[in-house]
Amino acid sequence: MTPSRDISRLIEIMAALRTPVTGCPWDLEQDFATIAPYTIEEAYEVADAITRGDFDDLREELGDLLLQVVYHARMAEEQNAFAFGDVVEAITRKLIRRHPHVFADKDGNIQPAGVKSAWERIKAEEKAERAARRPPEETAHTSLLASVKAGLPALTRAMQLQRKASTVGFDWNDPRAVLAKIREEADEIEAALDSKDKEELASETGDLMFAVVNLARHVDADPETALRATNAKFERRFAYIEKALAAKGRSLDDASLEEMDALWNEAKATTTAVVPAKAGTHTT
Questions:
Q1: Is the pLDDT of residue 28 over 90?
Q2: What superfamily does domain 154-221 belong to in CATH?
Q3: I need a surface site. Which of 9, 57, 165, 167 has the fewest CB within 10 A?
Q4: At 91, is the secondary structure helix, strand, or coil?
């Protein structure tokens, strides 16, 4: 089998990988749940390539993301749910429907100011149609938070859930109150550490993270952007440690925690004036 610019070749390759006995053992073991994390990861890789302006990487990452769509479609076809063609048909139908000013058969011209309102009206119609197809028990109660998409990254979804709740006054009025909540959640984690209950610790950690997102919202900071910046800062400072040790002919394995922490503080001092942290704290 040879590479091709035709989407049908990618679909054929995916089918071959998922063919029992002759296919790839790893691919055959996967299901929707195990592949979903890779789908999210590839979407982030696309965004990263765009941020860096690297079109070679963008081409590759878009291919990886397309593979995720083909992968899910293949698994759905194996269950007689739908196939890749159905995915394409669904999105083309949606685009045509949402752009009557472009694809209308006649008299479909809409002024720019009316495009957004038409888009929102059609989206609302589609949402109502989807709701009508659901069992009655699923539509008996519509939550204020129902419009926040479940598939969003956790940090982004936490921010949007909080914003939606704040529209009806369910919110703090002062960032310091949120900070107090963060301290409260940290205390609860400390108490959970004594019990060594992993599920409780995970739950309390999630509560702390949710509270931190709330603080970010109150100080007008996007949590995803803020965390990305801190990740980059951590990488720069850790690279400083590696380079400083390498200059002495040493490696990370040779260094003690105290030595690495001292170099970490040196890295911090190159950009900001800070009070040296205690060994082992690794503050950012």
A1: yes
A2: MazG-like (1.10.287.1080)
A3: 167
A4: helix
- Core vs surface per residue 220-242: b (16+ CB within 10 A) or e: eeebeeeeeeeeeeeeebbebbe
Question: What's this model's pTM, rounded to 2 decimal places?
Answer: 0.59
Dihedral over Cα of 74, 12, 85, 43: its sign: positive
Both tokens of 39, joined, read: 């789908």
Mean pLDDT, rounded, for 30-59 = 92
3-class state of residue 120 by DSSP: helix
Token output for 164: 């939606």
Mean pLDDT, the chain, whole residue set: 87
pLDDT digits (tens, 9 = 90+) for 156-192: 899 999 999 999 999 999 999 999 999 999 999 999 9
Q: Could you tell me the two tokens for 77?
A: 């076809």
Domain boundaries, the chain: 7-98, 101-139, 154-221, 224-269
Is 7-98's fold the same as 154-221's?
yes
